[in-house]
Amino acid sequence: MATVGALELPADGFDAVVFDCDGTLVNSMPAHFEAWCEALTYYGAANVFQEDVFYAMGGRPTTDIVVELNSEYGLKLDPAAVAMKKREAFLNRLGSIELIDEVVDFARSCRGRLPMAIATGGTRLVIEKTLQAVGISDLFDDVISADDVQVGKPDPEVFLKAAAILGVEPGRCLALEDAPAGIMSAQRAGMQVVAVPAPLNVLQP
């Protein structure tokens, strides 16, 4: 299982916890990057998405990223088609995903004491299959996905919706996030944010 270094968590000051999924609860980012490469290659755009750019854009909906790639590289990729191919490629890699132990242990310690939700830029289908693959579906009260909001991260909508569903004011929610867009999203929602360090093996070949 993947580990993270020096995760600093507050002991109090919050009444609910909202987690990102990819890169926060599970070390799935390498699998997502491989899926991106497969999908873009399939549509004739191999090597346009560099790994460092991918990690910087983590947390954003797939279709939004395709739109930005089109703009950056003068491409005419169909965002919906690329997203579907990328989803298929990722689901074929579910077996490689690992829990990020320290974050999941924290979630387990909160279970039954505090309401908890997932606020993700991923689609509901992919996130639910991810959670099932690593056996943590039953930890969370709800999942708010890209399918449930009008605007993805870094907009605060997904975190605000999570707070509303949990019935807790955003300012009394603790958010755990790993990606810049997600951290900004949670901060804009007014939540207390803990930045999850990258798993030690996240950038390994």
TrEMBL record:
UniProt cross-references to InterPro entries, sorted A to Z: HAD-like_sf (IPR036412), HAD-like_SPP (IPR051806), HAD-SF_hydro_IA (IPR006439), HAD_sf (IPR023214), PGP-like_dom2 (IPR023198)
Pfam families: Hydrolase
Top-rank lineage group of the source organism: Bacteria
GO terms assigned for molecular function: sugar-phosphatase activity
Protein name as it appears in the record: HAD family phosphatase
